[in-house]
Amino acid sequence: MGEAIHSNQLPLWNPYISFGLPFYGDMSASYWSPLTWLIAATSGYNPYTLTIEVLLYLLLSGIGMYYLSGCFAKNKYIRLIAAISYMCNGYIVGHLQHINWLSGAAYLPFCLWSLEKLHSERSLKWLLLSSLFFYLLLSSSHPGISIGAIYFFAAYIISKLLTDFKQHGLKELLKSVKLNLLFAGCLLLLSAGLIIGYADIIPYFDRNQAVDLSLSLNQNTDLKSWISGLLPFATTGDDIFFRSDPAFRNIYFGLILFVLFIASLFNKKSKKQVFFLVAGSFFLLLSLGGLIKLFTSKFIPLLGHVRVNAEFRIFAILCFTSAAVIFFNSLLEEKDYYQKKLKTVIVSVIAVLSFLFLYGFINLLMGKESALQYISTAQGIFFNRDVIKEMLDAVSIYDALLIQSIIQITLLLLLLNALRKNQMKRIFLIAATDIILATLLNLPFTGVGRVSVSTVSAILKKSPPGIPTPSLQPVRYNDTLPLNEVRLIGVWSFYSKQPGSAKADLYPVKLINNYSYYLQAAKDTTLRITDMPFVYISDSIQVKKPKKIKALTQENIVSYKTGELHLKLIADSACYIVLLQNYYPHWYYKINGQTYPVLQAGINFIGIPLEKGENDVRIFFNPIRIKTALLFSSIVFILYILVLFIPRLRKASLLKQQE
Description:
The protein has helices at 2-6, 34-41, 47-69, 76-87, 90-94, 99-121, 124-140, 143-168, 170-190, 192-201, 213-216, 239-242, 255-265, 271-288, 290-299, 313-333, 335-365, 371-377, 385-393, 397-421, 424-446, 453-460, 483-489, 512-523, 624-644, 647-650, 654-658; strands at residues 13-14, 21-22, 535-538, 557-561, 564-571, 575-579, 587-591, 594-597, 599-601, 605-610, 613-621. By secondary structure, it is an alpha+beta fold. Strands 4-5-11-7-8 form a 5-stranded antiparallel beta sheet, with no helix packed on it. The longest helix has 31 residues, at 335-365. It is globular and about 95 Å long.
């Protein structure tokens, strides 16, 4: 995308992945996010800018939670504890390599904060800000998070409407309904491009149906993983015990907030706490998958389209953090009533940790597998990255229980002392220590690779710069890269700047006709086009595999862009150009001054008829609706930003305008 922009091309079609797909149709690539366009248009994307973007989302998640917690507590230390706990929670630490999961976690607190402010202040400023934050969430997050957000915020708005009706009657309810309709209208206006783009791809997209449950039932944060709420390090190893990806297991949101949350369950609750408790429990259950997935995929719309159930746990973490903050604030306001009960919870948690410590210690004494055994035989572990990684991989659940139980018990004892002396600054330092230790213990398993960013960058530099004119080599040569490097960056055809791939690379977008080609080619090897260049001459396009009757030369290629190919050639007889790009709407060709839609060649490729003699052909991708929608959304986004800089307008009361 960045290469296209820097080559003065509007990125609409990606010709390199699986014989081409629309940039705007990839719901996981943040195409419609302003931040994506900003990075692509400036520095461009590379391992270093991706790292900076990850760090930015971490920072934003903390800032967002700091502002959100201000709706529930005024004490700055409570807000800071919430911020650092959220920005390094188990979900975020577990998915540092999944940038569209991080963006969702970063924008969720901002969305909830702005919606709280919109309902309390009812001003144009918060109407526009909430619309902008929600748009950033929808345009940059993984689709599963967007689907979860629909249900979460719908439930939140309904709870607000019910509260307004109970407290203020029908008149106030109607005002709230109008306010939310205004918000929905502003968000839909801003999201017009995104909606039109997704509507364009959905009919041709294999994921327009619910995912195969056999692929989804095990992508969970299973019940055993809930131990990470107290001991996140315990979920880093023993795949046989947990039976899930390590990235899916962690639900940690800080030791202090955890004990506060547990204490809140046994004390009187505000309506907001009840909402967060119910909503958080719902999403935590969704993350379990299994039988719950079987039920929800059948009876709750859209949930069947989510393959990885574990991503729903970010909503549980957001809710439980908010509920703990509300209780923490109540604790400061009514110390005598709450502190005794909190101390009881802390002592109980220490007792549980002591039992887990003994359990781990006894099992290690009995000779169970341990990293200590590896350390005793390893040489030079402090000077070799790979050896250190292997040592960490050898950490057993018994090691983890032993190590983190000691840490947590120590921190809780310090917390008891700080609570007794009412030292908020000290409590914050304890929380910071806890989060830092938990993050450092888990990072080697979910956030640190075996090689440096510079090593990955060196591999990617093998990719030619810009948008070069592809060579007319057979497609099978597009995927050549040593296996050890493929393991680091994925399929080389994503970066080689050569259209087409001999292997099925159907992520992130699986076009129906492209998928059909790979399926049929797998069953009948004679249908494979790996011996063909990306464009050639054929005498027929009605067969499943148009054969090559004439090869083109590089001189026949006048120009090449991501969504355009200009050819000049002499045909000995009437024939066809076969372009190995997926047959998709909005592709046209212009010949002798006339423009026509392209034809389908074989199972899924593009065909253009030629007449005998000289032919000047321009084949191009021209989605007029998408271009218009992109321009419209950009203008609306800029207008919203500009209005926020006009003091008189941003302070305008929406109630006065409605009345």
